[in-house]
Design goal:
There is one protein chain. This protein has one domain. Helix content is 81%, strand content 0%. The mean pLDDT is 85.
């Protein structure tokens, strides 16, 4: 185990050393290239920053308005007779909006229900199989300036719903064998 720690501590300096040596061999001005890339990075950050702020405000407004709790309770009441734990709906609703918020909810589910519970297993599969659709749409489409998204958003939402449904049914199918 201690060898892995030594290797992991040495990887980044070795990579930097490799890049400098490779650039020297290829006659590339490494420092100037790095500075040029850093300048481009600042421009990209400034270009996508409004989109990041917009999605952040939208997520916080969704939660603060009570719409998140309403939707979660509505879905839990619809599926009250199902074997899907109600905690799963929180992750399923938030995952398309924000990866970090859904990770926080997932952590709470693990603490509340335990690591081997059905709610944790379903939530874990949703975390791994669903995309943060609205964040990706806002940042990436905003960064390259795509404005016409007439069919893109509905297709992405449908794929999220289908992905979450497949995750739930897959875990329920395999969970029945674990009992």
């Amino acid at each position: 185990m201690k060898y892995i720690n030594y290797i992991s501590a040495a990887i980044i300096p070795l990579f930097v050393f490799f890049v400098v040596i490779y650039g020297f061999i290829k006659k590339v001005r490494v420092f100037d290239s790095f500075v040029l890339g850093a300048k481009d990075g600042v421009g990209i950050i400034l270009k996508i920053f409004p989109y990041i702020i917009t999605i952040f405000v939208a997520i916080k407004s969704f939660q603060a308005s009570g719409a998140f709790d309403f939707l979660k309770n509505f879905l839990a009441n619809i599926f009250v007779t199902s074997i899907v734990p109600p905690e799963v709906f929180s992750v399923a609703i938030v995952k398309p909006l924000s990866g970090s918020a859904s990770l926080g909810i997932f952590t709470d589910i693990v603490k509340l229900t335990g690591p081997d519970s059905l709610a944790t297993l379903i939530s874990a599969v949703i975390m791994g199989s669903a995309e943060t659709t609205f964040y990706v749409l806002a940042v990436y489409l905003g960064a390259i300036g795509i404005k016409k998204t007439k069919f893109l958003v509905p297709v992405c939402v449908i794929s999220d719903v289908l992905g979450i449904a497949v995750a739930v049914f897959t875990v329920l199918f395999f969970y029945s064998f674990l009992r």
